[in-house]
Structures are given as structure tokens and as C-alpha cells.
């Protein structure tokens, strides 16, 4: 078997080359089937190229064999190739797993030159299995994270505070209301408006949110503001 796969012979070199093609196809098929970049063709070419460069150390006729030196250069070269697949999309980065796959496929090609070819088969199988298992798990984690963010947004409560006051006291009451809201923890003022009423007074409306249901906080806020002169009526309601 060892003589049959001797890389220094035409037969052994060709059989190992076919193995690199097969394993590159195996990895690329999963990538293309799951609609990712760098599919069958790219992975096959990378795997064959890594194999050919490393095989040169075995078949060169000068008698000097330094497999690790060429393998190290292959790793660096494929690393630059993978960097070109990484794209920035706003705050997100795409293509990291694709670049890592290309880099690892090159390792499969290098392993095809070893006396025991099963090392390359094991690594290629591991790449495919990891993609098939970890990608669904990663998507599940992302969905849980997004669900938590949505849950945090849903937990916000919207309140509308309405205060009817005399026209002369409007400015002071608005100023006092804003100051009081800002001094409250976990209370955010979104909008503050004033409209004239038919009886010559002014109605002030404040729209606020809290990170949880805080009826007592809003009630205490109104009690504090209600001590101001010029206030005729005051009330609040939940807008959720």
C-alpha cells in the first residue's frame, strides 16, 4: 500500500492529487449547498494547490526535502487569500467562517502528502461536521440573543402625563417638570408639548418611558409637581 501511494512516483502523486480533489470537493459541497461563499471550485483549487506546493518538497530531484518550509509558506499565502473574503457590512463583519474554511482546506491538501492519507480524510470530515453542527447552534444562539433584545424593548412602558395650568405659570411648570423627570432614575423624557385650551388655560403633555412598569414613580412625580402654583388638574395614563 505504501509503495502504491509513493508520492515520488507518477501513480502515487496522481492518486494523492485525486484525493485532494475529492476532499476539497467534499468540503466545498457543504459550503455551496448551504449557500455560502467559496463553494466547490474554490475549495478544490485551494486543496489541490496546497497539495502541489507541498508535494514539490518530495519530488524535487536535488535530494533536499524540507516539507515544513513550503507548508509554512502555503499557510501564509492562503491566509492572504482568505483575508480578501472578509467583508465589513456596517458594524458587522462577514466572511470570517468562509476565510477560515479556505485556510483549513489548505491544511487538508498539505496532509494529502503524508504517508498516512487518513489524516487528511479525518480533517476534511471534521470541517464538514463542524459546519453542519455549529452553524445551526450559532444561529440558535443569535436568535436567543435577538429575542432577549426584543424582550428588553417590550419591557419599556410609555406614560403620558397631562397637566392643566394657567397661562402665566406654564413656563415655570414646564421647567420644573423637566427637571423633576431628569432627576428620576430609569425615566426618559421623549416629548414635551403645550396646547392652549378653550377656557384660556394651557395643557402640558409629557411623554416618558420607564424600563419597567413604574406607576408609583409617575404618581410621586405628579405629587411633587402638583405643589406648584397655577396647576388646575394633573393626571397620567399608560400608553402601551
How many strands, which pairing sense, and closed or not: the largest β-sheet? 4 strands, antiparallel
Question: Into which percent range does the helicity of residues fall?
Answer: 55-70%
Alpha carbon gap, first and last residue: 75 Å
Strand content: 15-25%
| Structure summary, number of beta strands | 6
List the helices and strands and how they pair.
Elements: H1 10-33, H2 40-59, H3 67-83, E1 87-89, E2 92-94, H4 96-111, H5 118-154, E3 157-165, H6 170-182, E4 187-196, E5 202-210, H7 215-225, E6 231-238
Antiparallel strand pairs: 1-2, 3-5, 3-6, 4-5
Helix pairs in contact: 1-2, 1-4, 1-5, 2-3, 2-4, 3-4, 4-5
Model description:
With 240 residues, the protein is an alpha+beta fold. The chain has seven helices and six strands. A four-stranded antiparallel sheet has the order 4-5-3-6, with helices on one face. Helix 1 runs antiparallel to helix 4, helix 2 packs antiparallel against helix 3 and helix 3 packs antiparallel against helix 4.
List keywords for this structure.
4-stranded antiparallel β-sheet; 6 strands; 7 helices; 240 residues; 57% helix; two-stranded antiparallel sheet; alpha+beta; 18% strand
